[in-house]
Every structure is written in C-alpha cells, then in structure tokens.
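debug: dumping io for the single-chain case to check the tokenizer round-trip. Nothing else runs in this session.
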Amino acid sequence: MNAAEQVKNFELASKIAAVVNLFKLQFPDARADLKPWVNDPNTQELVDPDSIDIGFHFPGWSRSLQSRSILVQIRFHEDPLDGDRRAIGVESAGYNHQGQQWRFSTVENWRFVGATEPVAEVQDKLKIFCQQTFELFNG
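debug: decoded output
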C-alpha cells in the first residue's frame, strides 16, 4: 500500500521518513515517491494492505543499478495474540522503460534475480538498506 496512505500516527510517519533517509544515504540522487501505486480499481486489487510501498526515482537510467526506478515494499505481519506488528520482509524491484529488470527479496535468501542485475557494490548497498530497515521497524 502506498506509504502516504499507511500513515496513521506520528511514529509511523517518522519511520517512513527514516526509511527514505536510509535509502538516500545509500543513493543520494534518489527522489522518493510515497504514492507509487495508481489509485484505480485494477491496481488496488494488487496492493498489499500489510506493506509500506515507496518508489525511488533516479535522474536517468543508471548502469550500476540497471534501472531508473526502484520500488521498495516493506511487508508486515501483525501477531493476533499480542497485536505486535513486525517487518517480516523487504522486497525491491528495479525498473526501466522496458519494465522490471530485477527483483530482490529478503524472504528469498537475499538474492537478486532478473534479466539484468545491479553491480555488486549496489547490491551491497541495497542489502545494507534492508538490514537498517529491519532494525528501524523491529528494534
């Protein structure tokens, strides 16, 4: 779900802002988009209400990223017994004018897959960002 639509309190707003800052620490040229999903019925069917989704756009196509935009989805699970909401996964995907070029998931062994993949240095930066995101939401 769009990050802007997930903001329900000051604490969550602060954490979303912190996620943006963590990403920009690794990729200073990125511009954050807190509403990466279009608000139409077809798109809304695909949206996960238990995620915070943020798009990051770059000034142009990046050879090292093998993309121009990256969609980041932070997935959550709420424990029905104690109501504790924890981040359980971070998924990201790189896009250019031809569509999705690569995917990365912390759920799937922290591996990149796709037609093209970011260079090793960029992969490491994305992994650091994911680790910091888990620390932010799960302490």
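debug: round-trip ok. The two ends are 22 Å apart (CA to CA).
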